[in-house]
Amino acid sequence: MATSAGFFQPPRVALPMIDVCYGVGGVSGQPGCIRYSAVMKISKDGSEETVTNWALEKLLAINPVNKSFSYEIVDMKDAEKEATAITWSFVANPIEGWTEKGLTEFYGSALQRMAERMEAALSTQGA
């Protein structure tokens, strides 16, 4: 998927839930380019009306050797206000005095607190 066209038009098999995906800024495959992606859904009340959930995503880095890329969501609309999953990962060299388990638990608890604060902030905004 990490090809020059891959960011603007990912293979259907990579993101089968995306109904629409195209570039809106920059050159596909170049850091800084932005894509629009959207999912069409039937409304919760069961009517035939469709609702679009969309995101603008900015390419941060592309690695053709590993066939991977990193991007950030710069704007989004989730019409049904569903829960959004946040996936965090990190890479670290060994740190003197820390075990892998200890470091993972440290970051895990810090990220849990951050997620709780984000949830609280969103709930006070009526999101």
From TrEMBL:
Record SUPFAM superfamilies:
Bet v1-like
InterPro entries (alphabetical): LFS, START-like_dom_sf
- UniProt cross-references to PANTHER family, sorted A to Z: LACHRYMATORY-FACTOR SYNTHASE, OS05G0202300 PROTEIN
Q: What is this protein called?
A: Uncharacterized protein
Q: Which organism is it from?
A: Eucalyptus globulus
Question: Where is the organism placed in the taxonomic lineage, from the top?
Answer: Eukaryota, Viridiplantae, Streptophyta, Embryophyta, Tracheophyta
